[in-house]
Design goal:
single chain; six-stranded mixed β-sheet
Length: about 500
């Protein structure tokens, strides 16, 4: 086993509030280059000082061949169970539940041929890596930069002790972590610098399939820095115990920083809809993005996308999704007007309405169904004059092949759809409200971009499969920041799903 120890420089983060319309400049990783997009009025001196570290960062090193990186957070630890602040301390170990979670992740990844495993040196993560790695003979590398966030004087305290002892500092850690300072350090900014350093080493390694086993905060930083997001996105991209996230890197023909796509976020051993909390906070408002099932014509073009019916696989995918949502009381189902979306929505609605009749008292309930025209992307997509997009497969990063004008129209229309969904989530007096939105993967990718307050150039940074679900939580209500619980979750589809790490593209490019 190889161990890497290299201390990174300290970089500064920036202040950025979501999801208000007043936005600061941010960095966009597009299909051509790493560029700055100005989304606001002139900055204050404080904002200029706290600009995203990505402004000053160099692009990722070029790669020679496509590389897939699978991130896994460690299983539940003894300090997780106690509610104790761990940070980069090394005193906790996996609980029995944590060992079981790690074994579930091992089974999820058992058929994958990894070339190398990078692991945090901390016991809880290292043990998780050993369980997942099993009998594999390939190289395991421990890297100190993959340790959990350094929290200095906070480490070892129970959460109520941290609140009592540090007061305002603990409050800042909860509500403004990017600017949180303790013992003269900015932990989240330091973490983002370490994550960038980790990517340099991971991408430089001669491998095509990489497993990385680390921790909650550092995995968040790895995902965020890969797709060009700053420290203000801390606690926005959730990482549950043994949650699996997948990132695809593809070389550019002209060289330079690779194309990067978040293929999957936080695929967990347990159901992603069970918990009612997001980032440690209770949430009662949620939007679940359901991708329509597979279409009958696997060679379908954008020109007849709206008329396509689902094939038998698509029907099964819709039924499996309906079963996954069975334990939730869905308030409303909205969908695009095309046939596949409407059929998927109807299947979910029927199961929801029948759910209350499964017990002794049969009291069927009505689930409101609505169609939102702005969720229909077929008409816009068929305007593309490029021949590089294959609608039947939607490979990661495929939207980089769309015309700029088409992307602009798609982004504007999806923005209106997003406003409609937030309005739907706000309407009514229900204390808990869950909206299910059914649409083509393209529409949902754009909706996630709006949820994260990004720009249209980010569309190629996400991927969704037919039949997948993505969960967006709003612990502060529809006017607050959206928390991404999972993206492209497909475990509920069973043997009808695309395996977590099976490539949907050839070995050379997206």
């Amino acid at each position: 086993m190889i161990s890497l120890t290299q201390a990174p420089p300290l970089l500064h983060g920036r202040l950025h509030h979501l999801p208000t319309k007043r936005r600061n400049p941010f960095t966009v990783r597009s299909s051509s280059s790493l560029q700055e997009i100005d989304k606001s009025s002139p900055q204050t001196a404080e904002h200029r000082e706290l600009r995203s570290e990505l402004y000053a960062s160099v692009p990722f090193p070029p790669i020679k061949a496509a590389k897939r990186v699978v991130l896994v957070r460690h299983g539940q630890s003894t300090w997780n169970e106690e509610g104790r602040i761990q940070g980069s301390s090394n005193f906790s170990v996996l609980t029995k539940k944590g060992e079981a979670q790690a074994d579930t992740s091992r089974q999820m990844l058992i058929d994958d041929s990894f070339d190398v495993c990078f692991s945090s040196p901390l016991i809880r993560s290292k043990r998780t890596a050993e369980i997942i790695w099993g009998t594999r003979k390939e190289e395991m590398i421990t890297d100190s930069d993959l340790r959990e966030i350094d929290l200095y004087s906070f480490q070892g305290l129970l959460k109520h002790e941290g609140k009592a002892k540090f007061g305002p500092a603990y409050r800042q850690w909860q509500v403004d972590a990017a600017n949180f300072n303790i013992d003269g350090h900015y932990p989240v900014r330091e973490l983002w610098a370490r994550a960038r350093n980790c990517w340099t080493k991971i991408l430089a390694h001669e491998s095509k399939s990489v497993l990385v086993v680390a921790h909650n905060a550092v995995n968040q930083a790895l995902v965020a820095t890969a797709i060009g997001l700053g420290t203000e996105y801390f606690r926005i991209l959730l990482q549950s115990n043994c949650g699996v996230s997948v990132l695809d890197f593809a070389p550019r023909p002209e060289g330079g920083s690779p194309y990067i796509c978040l293929n999957r976020l936080n695929q967990t051993p347990s159901s992603p809809i069970v918990s009612g909390s997001a980032g440690g906070r209770k949430t009662s408002k949620r939007i679940i993005l359901v991708c329509q099932g597979s279409l009958q014509d696997t060679e379908a073009s954008f020109s007849n996308l709206a008329d396509q019916q689902m094939n038998m696989l698509g029907v099964i995918q819709a039924q499996k999704t309906a079963e996954l949502l069975l334990d939730l009381k869905v308030s409303a189902i909205v969908s695009g007007p095309n046939n596949a979306c409407a059929e998927t929505a109807t299947i979910i609605s029927r199961v929801q309405e029948a759910a209350d009749c499964l017990g002794a008292d049969c009291i069927p309930r009505y689930v409101e169904m609505k169609k939102i025209q702005d969720l229909d992307v077929a008409e816009i997509l068929q305007q593309s004059t490029k021949d590089t997009v294959d609608v039947s497969s939607l490979h990661p990063g495929w939207s980089n092949g769309l015309d700029d004008g088409v992307i602009s129209k798609l982004w504007a229309q999806s923005g209106r759809a997003w406003c409609s969904l937030l309005t739907e989530l706000s309407d009514g007096s229900e204390e808990e409200k869950i909206i299910v939105a059914v649409a083509h993967p393209t529409a949902h990718i754009a909706l996630m971009g709006h949820c994260l307050n990004l720009a249209k150039e980010w569309l190629g940074s996400f991927h969704l499969d037919a039949g997948s679900i993505s969960v967006l939580d709003f612990p502060d209500g529809p006017t607050g920041r959206g928390i991404i619980r999972c993206i492209n979750y497909t475990a509920h589809l069973g043997r009808w799903s695309i395996p977590i790490t099976r490539s949907t593209v050839d070995d050379e490019s997206f």
